[in-house]
Protein backbone atom coordinates (compact mmCIF):
# COMPACT_ATOMS: atom_id res chain seq x y z
CA UNK A 1 0.00 0.00 0.00
CA UNK A 2 1.11 3.54 -0.76
CA UNK A 3 0.33 6.53 1.48
CA UNK A 4 -0.92 8.70 -1.36
CA UNK A 5 -1.35 8.69 -5.13
CA UNK A 6 -1.34 11.86 -7.23
CA UNK A 7 -3.82 10.71 -9.87
CA UNK A 8 -4.45 11.94 -13.38
CA UNK A 9 -1.99 14.82 -13.58
CA UNK A 10 0.57 15.87 -16.15
CA UNK A 11 3.90 15.28 -14.57
CA UNK A 12 7.39 16.73 -15.18
CA UNK A 13 9.29 13.43 -15.17
CA UNK A 14 12.82 12.71 -16.33
CA UNK A 15 11.30 11.33 -19.54
CA UNK A 16 9.55 14.60 -20.26
CA UNK A 17 6.25 16.19 -19.36
CA UNK A 18 3.76 13.34 -19.58
CA UNK A 19 0.42 12.22 -18.19
CA UNK A 20 1.25 9.86 -15.36
CA UNK A 21 0.43 9.12 -11.73
CA UNK A 22 2.89 9.31 -8.86
CA UNK A 23 2.76 7.25 -5.65
CA UNK A 24 4.19 8.35 -2.31
CA UNK A 25 5.26 6.15 0.59
CA UNK A 26 7.00 7.29 3.80
CA UNK A 27 7.68 10.74 2.39
CA UNK A 28 9.46 9.41 -0.71
CA UNK A 29 8.46 8.92 -4.31
CA UNK A 30 7.57 5.21 -4.48
CA UNK A 31 6.35 4.72 -8.06
CA UNK A 32 5.66 6.58 -11.31
CA UNK A 33 3.23 5.22 -13.88
CA UNK A 34 -0.38 4.16 -14.20
CA UNK A 35 -1.17 3.35 -10.56
CA UNK A 36 -4.31 1.63 -9.29
CA UNK A 37 -6.14 3.93 -6.81
CA UNK A 38 -7.03 0.95 -4.60
CA UNK A 39 -3.34 0.76 -3.68
CA UNK A 40 -3.36 3.93 -1.57
CA UNK A 41 -4.97 5.28 1.55
CA UNK A 42 -5.32 8.71 0.03
CA UNK A 43 -5.81 9.78 -3.59
CA UNK A 44 -5.39 13.35 -4.74
CA UNK A 45 -7.14 14.00 -8.03
CA UNK A 46 -4.80 16.27 -9.99
CA UNK A 47 -6.59 15.98 -13.34
CA UNK A 48 -5.96 19.09 -15.42
CA UNK A 49 -3.00 20.12 -13.24
CA UNK A 50 0.77 19.90 -13.69
CA UNK A 51 2.79 18.03 -11.08
CA UNK A 52 6.26 19.55 -10.86
CA UNK A 53 9.21 18.63 -8.63
CA UNK A 54 9.16 20.86 -5.54
CA UNK A 55 10.35 24.40 -6.20
CA UNK A 56 13.43 25.34 -4.17
CA UNK A 57 14.01 29.04 -3.49
CA UNK A 58 17.74 29.17 -2.81
CA UNK A 59 17.84 32.81 -1.70
CA UNK A 60 15.50 34.19 0.99
CA UNK A 61 15.96 36.57 3.95
CA UNK A 62 13.63 35.65 6.83
CA UNK A 63 14.91 38.11 9.48
CA UNK A 64 14.88 35.82 12.52
CA UNK A 65 16.54 36.38 14.93
CA UNK A 66 16.51 40.09 15.59
CA UNK A 67 14.27 41.65 12.94
CA UNK A 68 11.05 39.75 13.51
CA UNK A 69 8.94 42.86 13.00
CA UNK A 70 9.72 42.37 9.26
CA UNK A 71 9.44 38.55 9.10
CA UNK A 72 10.13 35.37 11.02
CA UNK A 73 10.74 31.75 10.10
CA UNK A 74 7.05 30.88 10.50
CA UNK A 75 5.65 33.74 8.40
CA UNK A 76 8.41 33.48 5.80
CA UNK A 77 7.90 29.76 5.23
CA UNK A 78 4.10 30.18 5.30
CA UNK A 79 4.50 32.54 2.34
CA UNK A 80 6.79 30.02 0.66
CA UNK A 81 4.26 27.17 1.03
CA UNK A 82 1.36 29.36 -0.15
CA UNK A 83 3.45 30.23 -3.20
CA UNK A 84 4.20 26.61 -4.10
CA UNK A 85 7.75 26.53 -2.72
CA UNK A 86 8.82 23.33 -0.90
CA UNK A 87 12.30 24.31 0.40
CA UNK A 88 14.17 27.55 1.09
CA UNK A 89 17.80 28.49 1.77
CA UNK A 90 17.93 31.38 4.21
CA UNK A 91 20.54 34.17 4.27
CA UNK A 92 22.82 35.10 7.19
CA UNK A 93 22.20 38.87 7.48
CA UNK A 94 19.96 38.55 10.52
CA UNK A 95 20.66 40.17 13.90
CA UNK A 96 23.09 38.85 14.97
CA UNK A 97 24.56 37.79 11.63
CA UNK A 98 24.88 34.01 11.32
CA UNK A 99 28.66 33.64 11.60
CA UNK A 100 29.32 31.12 14.39
CA UNK A 101 28.28 27.54 15.16
CA UNK A 102 26.22 28.94 18.03
CA UNK A 103 24.32 31.31 15.70
CA UNK A 104 23.67 28.41 13.34
CA UNK A 105 22.46 26.10 16.11
CA UNK A 106 20.15 28.88 17.29
CA UNK A 107 18.57 29.23 13.83
CA UNK A 108 18.09 25.45 13.52
CA UNK A 109 16.48 25.33 16.98
CA UNK A 110 14.14 28.18 16.07
CA UNK A 111 13.11 26.39 12.86
CA UNK A 112 12.03 23.24 14.69
CA UNK A 113 8.24 22.75 14.56
CA UNK A 114 7.77 26.26 13.12
CA UNK A 115 8.61 26.06 9.41
CA UNK A 116 6.15 25.06 6.67
CA UNK A 117 8.81 24.06 4.14
CA UNK A 118 12.18 22.36 4.37
CA UNK A 119 14.97 24.80 5.08
CA UNK A 120 18.74 25.30 5.09
CA UNK A 121 20.76 28.26 6.34
CA UNK A 122 23.79 30.10 4.94
CA UNK A 123 26.69 31.01 7.17
CA UNK A 124 28.01 34.54 6.58
CA UNK A 125 31.67 35.09 5.72
CA UNK A 126 33.43 37.74 7.80
CA UNK A 127 37.07 38.57 8.52
CA UNK A 128 36.63 37.16 12.04
CA UNK A 129 35.34 33.69 11.05
CA UNK A 130 37.55 32.84 8.04
CA UNK A 131 39.41 30.07 9.89
CA UNK A 132 36.18 28.46 11.05
CA UNK A 133 34.46 28.38 7.66
CA UNK A 134 35.59 24.85 6.65
CA UNK A 135 33.95 23.46 9.79
CA UNK A 136 30.93 25.76 9.71
CA UNK A 137 30.04 24.92 6.12
CA UNK A 138 29.75 21.24 7.08
CA UNK A 139 27.28 21.68 9.94
CA UNK A 140 23.88 19.98 9.50
CA UNK A 141 21.36 22.21 7.76
CA UNK A 142 23.95 24.56 6.26
CA UNK A 143 23.54 25.36 2.56
CA UNK A 144 26.98 26.96 2.31
CA UNK A 145 28.90 30.18 2.87
CA UNK A 146 27.55 33.57 1.74
CA UNK A 147 29.77 36.53 0.92
CA UNK A 148 28.55 40.12 0.66
CA UNK A 149 31.16 42.01 -1.44
CA UNK A 150 29.09 45.21 -1.19
CA UNK A 151 27.16 46.36 1.85
CA UNK A 152 23.44 45.83 1.83
CA UNK A 153 21.01 45.16 4.70
CA UNK A 154 23.01 44.23 7.83
CA UNK A 155 26.73 44.44 8.60
CA UNK A 156 28.22 41.48 6.70
CA UNK A 157 30.95 42.57 4.30
CA UNK A 158 34.06 41.13 2.62
CA UNK A 159 35.33 44.17 0.84
CA UNK A 160 38.99 43.69 -0.14
CA UNK A 161 40.67 41.13 -2.41
CA UNK A 162 42.96 39.81 0.33
CA UNK A 163 40.08 38.84 2.65
CA UNK A 164 38.06 37.58 -0.30
CA UNK A 165 40.95 35.29 -1.30
CA UNK A 166 41.27 34.03 2.29
CA UNK A 167 37.55 33.24 2.46
CA UNK A 168 37.59 31.47 -0.90
CA UNK A 169 40.66 29.43 0.07
CA UNK A 170 38.95 28.34 3.27
CA UNK A 171 36.60 25.41 2.64
CA UNK A 172 35.29 23.39 -0.28
CA UNK A 173 31.59 23.79 -0.89
CA UNK A 174 30.23 26.25 -3.41
CA UNK A 175 30.14 29.81 -2.05
CA UNK A 176 27.20 32.14 -2.77
CA UNK A 177 28.23 35.72 -3.48
CA UNK A 178 26.53 39.12 -3.65
CA UNK A 179 28.65 40.96 -6.21
CA UNK A 180 28.70 44.73 -5.82
CA UNK A 181 32.03 46.58 -5.45
CA UNK A 182 32.09 48.30 -2.05
CA UNK A 183 34.77 50.89 -2.95
CA UNK A 184 32.75 52.05 -5.94
CA UNK A 185 29.56 52.14 -3.84
CA UNK A 186 31.30 54.38 -1.31
CA UNK A 187 32.76 56.68 -4.00
CA UNK A 188 29.44 57.10 -5.76
CA UNK A 189 27.27 57.54 -2.66
CA UNK A 190 27.69 61.33 -3.21
CA UNK A 191 25.13 60.95 -6.04
CA UNK A 192 22.33 60.23 -3.55
CA UNK A 193 23.61 61.50 -0.20
CA UNK A 194 21.12 63.83 1.48
CA UNK A 195 18.21 62.76 -0.72
CA UNK A 196 17.49 61.89 -4.35
CA UNK A 197 14.69 60.32 -6.37
CA UNK A 198 14.68 56.54 -5.82
CA UNK A 199 15.29 56.09 -9.56
CA UNK A 200 18.87 57.23 -8.78
CA UNK A 201 19.38 53.87 -7.02
CA UNK A 202 20.39 52.28 -10.32
CA UNK A 203 22.79 55.18 -11.02
CA UNK A 204 24.49 54.97 -7.63
CA UNK A 205 24.76 51.17 -7.76
CA UNK A 206 25.44 51.16 -11.51
CA UNK A 207 26.26 48.28 -13.84
CA UNK A 208 30.01 48.90 -13.42
CA UNK A 209 29.62 48.38 -9.65
CA UNK A 210 28.31 44.85 -10.29
CA UNK A 211 30.72 44.07 -13.14
CA UNK A 212 33.80 45.05 -11.10
CA UNK A 213 32.86 42.83 -8.19
CA UNK A 214 31.94 39.86 -10.37
CA UNK A 215 35.19 40.18 -12.34
CA UNK A 216 37.30 40.39 -9.17
CA UNK A 217 35.49 37.41 -7.68
CA UNK A 218 35.81 35.19 -10.76
CA UNK A 219 39.57 35.81 -11.07
CA UNK A 220 40.24 35.03 -7.42
CA UNK A 221 37.92 32.00 -7.39
CA UNK A 222 39.62 30.61 -10.49
CA UNK A 223 43.02 31.15 -8.87
CA UNK A 224 42.15 29.24 -5.71
CA UNK A 225 39.94 26.73 -7.60
CA UNK A 226 36.82 27.44 -5.55
CA UNK A 227 33.32 27.03 -6.93
CA UNK A 228 31.13 30.12 -6.63
CA UNK A 229 27.48 30.95 -7.23
CA UNK A 230 26.83 34.51 -8.40
CA UNK A 231 23.58 35.65 -6.83
CA UNK A 232 21.07 37.92 -8.55
CA UNK A 233 23.02 38.82 -11.69
CA UNK A 234 21.54 42.02 -13.16
CA UNK A 235 23.68 43.26 -16.03
CA UNK A 236 24.20 42.49 -19.71
CA UNK A 237 27.95 42.95 -19.11
CA UNK A 238 28.22 40.20 -16.47
CA UNK A 239 26.22 37.85 -18.70
CA UNK A 240 28.94 38.32 -21.36
CA UNK A 241 31.71 37.39 -18.91
CA UNK A 242 30.11 34.51 -17.02
CA UNK A 243 30.09 31.92 -19.87
CA UNK A 244 33.91 31.98 -19.72
CA UNK A 245 33.77 30.65 -16.16
CA UNK A 246 31.35 27.77 -16.51
CA UNK A 247 33.77 25.42 -14.73
CA UNK A 248 33.67 27.31 -11.43
CA UNK A 249 30.69 29.68 -11.54
CA UNK A 250 26.95 29.17 -11.49
CA UNK A 251 24.45 31.97 -12.00
CA UNK A 252 21.20 33.09 -10.38
CA UNK A 253 18.59 35.50 -11.69
CA UNK A 254 15.62 36.76 -9.71
CA UNK A 255 12.04 36.97 -10.98
CA UNK A 256 12.01 40.72 -10.28
CA UNK A 257 15.09 41.46 -12.40
CA UNK A 258 13.45 39.46 -15.20
CA UNK A 259 10.07 41.18 -14.79
CA UNK A 260 10.53 44.80 -13.66
CA UNK A 261 12.56 47.56 -15.28
CA UNK A 262 13.49 51.09 -14.20
CA UNK A 263 9.99 52.33 -15.05
CA UNK A 264 9.04 50.70 -11.69
CA UNK A 265 10.72 53.47 -9.65
CA UNK A 266 8.13 56.04 -10.77
CA UNK A 267 5.27 53.57 -10.54
CA UNK A 268 5.89 51.91 -7.14
CA UNK A 269 8.62 54.09 -5.56
CA UNK A 270 10.83 52.51 -2.92
CA UNK A 271 9.03 49.16 -3.24
CA UNK A 272 11.24 48.79 -6.33
CA UNK A 273 14.42 49.54 -4.36
CA UNK A 274 16.69 46.54 -3.94
CA UNK A 275 20.35 45.55 -4.23
CA UNK A 276 21.56 45.02 -6.86
CA UNK A 277 19.05 47.41 -8.44
CA UNK A 278 16.22 46.98 -10.88
CA UNK A 279 17.75 48.24 -14.17
CA UNK A 280 16.83 49.37 -17.68
CA UNK A 281 15.10 47.18 -20.26
CA UNK A 282 18.45 46.74 -22.04
CA UNK A 283 19.67 44.70 -19.07
CA UNK A 284 16.34 42.86 -18.63
CA UNK A 285 16.51 41.73 -22.27
CA UNK A 286 20.10 40.55 -21.77
CA UNK A 287 19.08 38.49 -18.72
CA UNK A 288 16.41 36.74 -20.80
CA UNK A 289 18.88 36.13 -23.61
CA UNK A 290 21.34 34.64 -21.10
CA UNK A 291 18.61 32.54 -19.52
CA UNK A 292 17.63 31.11 -22.87
CA UNK A 293 21.29 30.48 -23.78
CA UNK A 294 21.64 28.34 -20.64
CA UNK A 295 23.89 30.80 -18.80
CA UNK A 296 21.44 31.03 -15.89
CA UNK A 297 21.39 28.04 -13.52
CA UNK A 298 18.62 28.91 -11.12
CA UNK A 299 15.95 31.38 -10.10
CA UNK A 300 16.07 32.62 -6.50
CA UNK A 301 13.66 35.21 -5.16
CA UNK A 302 15.97 37.22 -2.86
CA UNK A 303 12.84 37.59 -0.69
CA UNK A 304 13.88 40.57 1.48
CA UNK A 305 10.97 41.95 3.49
CA UNK A 306 10.91 45.42 5.02
CA UNK A 307 7.78 47.07 6.44
CA UNK A 308 5.95 49.71 4.42
CA UNK A 309 6.70 52.18 7.25
CA UNK A 310 10.42 51.54 6.77
CA UNK A 311 10.03 51.79 3.00
CA UNK A 312 8.30 55.17 3.45
CA UNK A 313 11.55 56.78 4.67
CA UNK A 314 12.93 59.23 2.11
CA UNK A 315 15.46 57.66 -0.29
CA UNK A 316 18.33 56.76 0.33
CA UNK A 317 17.31 56.12 3.95
CA UNK A 318 14.66 53.65 2.79
CA UNK A 319 15.86 50.02 3.06
CA UNK A 320 16.57 47.86 0.00
CA UNK A 321 14.65 44.68 -0.64
CA UNK A 322 11.25 43.37 -1.67
CA UNK A 323 9.20 40.26 -0.93
CA UNK A 324 9.37 37.45 -3.48
CA UNK A 325 9.20 33.92 -2.07
CA UNK A 326 5.41 33.73 -2.48
CA UNK A 327 5.35 35.23 -5.97
CA UNK A 328 8.29 33.34 -7.55
CA UNK A 329 6.10 30.54 -8.95
CA UNK A 330 3.18 32.66 -10.27
CA UNK A 331 5.50 35.28 -11.81
CA UNK A 332 7.66 32.69 -13.55
CA UNK A 333 4.64 30.61 -14.68
CA UNK A 334 3.23 33.80 -16.17
CA UNK A 335 6.46 34.09 -18.17
CA UNK A 336 5.96 30.43 -19.24
CA UNK A 337 2.46 31.30 -20.40
CA UNK A 338 3.75 34.33 -22.29
CA UNK A 339 6.21 32.10 -24.13
CA UNK A 340 9.44 33.44 -22.60
CA UNK A 341 10.56 30.06 -21.25
CA UNK A 342 9.35 26.48 -21.45
CA UNK A 343 7.86 24.58 -18.52
CA UNK A 344 10.85 22.21 -18.78
CA UNK A 345 13.22 25.15 -18.33
CA UNK A 346 11.14 26.43 -15.40
CA UNK A 347 11.66 23.05 -13.69
CA UNK A 348 15.37 23.10 -14.51
CA UNK A 349 15.75 26.58 -12.98
CA UNK A 350 13.64 26.05 -9.86
CA UNK A 351 14.28 22.40 -8.88
CA UNK A 352 17.11 20.68 -10.73
CA UNK A 353 19.21 23.89 -10.81
CA UNK A 354 19.44 24.58 -7.07
CA UNK A 355 20.11 20.87 -6.42
CA UNK A 356 22.96 20.76 -8.96
CA UNK A 357 24.48 24.01 -7.65
CA UNK A 358 24.47 23.06 -3.97
CA UNK A 359 24.56 19.24 -4.21
CA UNK A 360 21.23 18.77 -2.46
CA UNK A 361 20.64 15.14 -1.46
CA UNK A 362 17.52 13.42 -2.90
CA UNK A 363 15.48 16.42 -3.94
CA UNK A 364 14.79 18.25 -7.19
CA UNK A 365 13.50 15.55 -9.50
CA UNK A 366 10.54 13.24 -9.76
CA UNK A 367 12.34 9.93 -9.44
CA UNK A 368 11.83 6.85 -7.29
CA UNK A 369 13.46 7.23 -3.86
CA UNK A 370 13.64 11.03 -4.01
CA UNK A 371 11.79 13.16 -1.45
CA UNK A 372 8.09 13.47 -2.33
CA UNK A 373 8.23 17.26 -2.76
CA UNK A 374 5.77 18.60 -5.34
CA UNK A 375 4.63 21.95 -6.63
CA UNK A 376 1.24 21.30 -8.22
CA UNK A 377 0.17 24.08 -10.54
CA UNK A 378 -2.74 25.09 -12.71
CA UNK A 379 -1.14 26.56 -15.81
CA UNK A 380 -4.47 28.01 -16.95
CA UNK A 381 -5.58 29.68 -13.70
CA UNK A 382 -5.85 33.46 -14.03
CA UNK A 383 -5.34 35.36 -10.81
CA UNK A 384 -4.39 38.81 -9.62
CA UNK A 385 -1.46 39.12 -7.23
CA UNK A 386 -2.39 41.44 -4.33
CA UNK A 387 -0.78 42.75 -1.14
CA UNK A 388 -3.63 41.06 0.73
CA UNK A 389 -2.54 37.60 -0.46
CA UNK A 390 0.99 38.04 0.89
CA UNK A 391 1.62 36.08 4.12
CA UNK A 392 4.91 37.85 4.86
CA UNK A 393 4.70 39.91 8.03
CA UNK A 394 5.40 43.05 5.97
CA UNK A 395 2.28 42.35 3.85
CA UNK A 396 3.16 43.77 0.44
CA UNK A 397 4.49 42.79 -2.96
CA UNK A 398 5.95 44.82 -5.83
CA UNK A 399 3.41 43.06 -8.07
CA UNK A 400 0.25 44.29 -6.28
CA UNK A 401 -2.53 44.41 -8.91
CA UNK A 402 -0.69 42.32 -11.53
CA UNK A 403 -2.78 39.76 -13.44
CA UNK A 404 -1.00 36.48 -14.07
CA UNK A 405 -1.79 33.16 -15.73
CA UNK A 406 -0.46 30.09 -13.89
CA UNK A 407 -0.88 29.50 -10.16
CA UNK A 408 0.29 27.06 -7.46
CA UNK A 409 -2.63 24.90 -6.29
CA UNK A 410 -0.92 22.52 -3.82
CA UNK A 411 2.43 22.27 -2.10
CA UNK A 412 3.60 18.85 -0.92
CA UNK A 413 6.66 18.53 1.32
CA UNK A 414 8.00 14.99 1.81
CA UNK A 415 4.55 13.53 1.20
CA UNK A 416 2.69 16.03 3.40
CA UNK A 417 0.20 18.38 1.79
CA UNK A 418 1.11 21.71 3.44
CA UNK A 419 -0.89 23.97 1.10
CA UNK A 420 -4.05 23.18 -0.83
CA UNK A 421 -6.05 25.71 -2.87
CA UNK A 422 -4.68 28.70 -1.02
CA UNK A 423 -4.90 27.31 2.54
CA UNK A 424 -2.11 26.08 4.78
CA UNK A 425 -2.87 22.52 5.95
CA UNK A 426 -1.86 20.73 9.15
CA UNK A 427 1.23 21.66 11.12
CA UNK A 428 4.55 23.21 10.12
CA UNK A 429 6.70 20.11 9.68
CA UNK A 430 9.60 21.41 7.62
CA UNK A 431 13.00 19.98 8.37
CA UNK A 432 16.64 20.51 7.41
CA UNK A 433 17.58 20.08 3.76
CA UNK A 434 20.40 17.52 3.38
CA UNK A 435 23.47 18.05 1.18
CA UNK A 436 25.58 15.34 -0.43
CA UNK A 437 28.84 16.91 0.76
CA UNK A 438 27.91 16.69 4.44
CA UNK A 439 25.67 13.68 4.95
O1 LIG B 1 17.91 44.39 -1.65
C1 LIG B 1 18.47 43.62 -0.89
N1 LIG B 1 17.95 43.34 0.32
N2 LIG B 1 19.60 43.03 -1.26
C2 LIG B 1 20.35 42.33 -0.39
O2 LIG B 1 21.41 41.89 -0.75
C3 LIG B 1 19.91 42.15 1.00
C4 LIG B 1 18.46 42.28 1.10
C5 LIG B 1 17.99 42.40 2.53
O3 LIG B 1 18.35 41.55 3.34
O4 LIG B 1 17.23 43.33 2.83
TrEMBL record:
Keyword Metal-binding: yes
Domain Amidohydrolase-related: 51-418
InterPro entries: Amidohydro-rel, DHOase/Allantoinase_Hydrolase, Dihydroorotase_CS, Metal-dep_hydrolase_composite, Metal_Hydrolase
Pfam families named in the record: Amidohydro_1
Keyword Metal-binding carried by entry: yes
Gene Ontology cellular component list: cytoplasm
Listed SUPFAM superfamilies: Composite domain of metallo-dependent hydrolases, Metallo-dependent hydrolases
CDD domains: DHOase_IIb (cd01318)
Cofactor(s) for this UniProt protein: Zn(2+)
Record's keyword terms, sorted: Hydrolase, Metal-binding
Gene Ontology process terms (BP): purine nucleobase catabolic process
Record-level Gene Ontology MF annotations: allantoinase activity; metal ion binding
Membrane-spanning parts: none
Family statement: Belongs to the metallo-dependent hydrolases superfamily. DHOase family. Class I DHOase subfamily.
Function text: Catalyzes the reversible cyclization of carbamoyl aspartate to dihydroorotate.
Protein name: Dihydroorotase
Organism: Terasakiella brassicae
Name of the gene encoding the protein in the UniProt record: pyrC
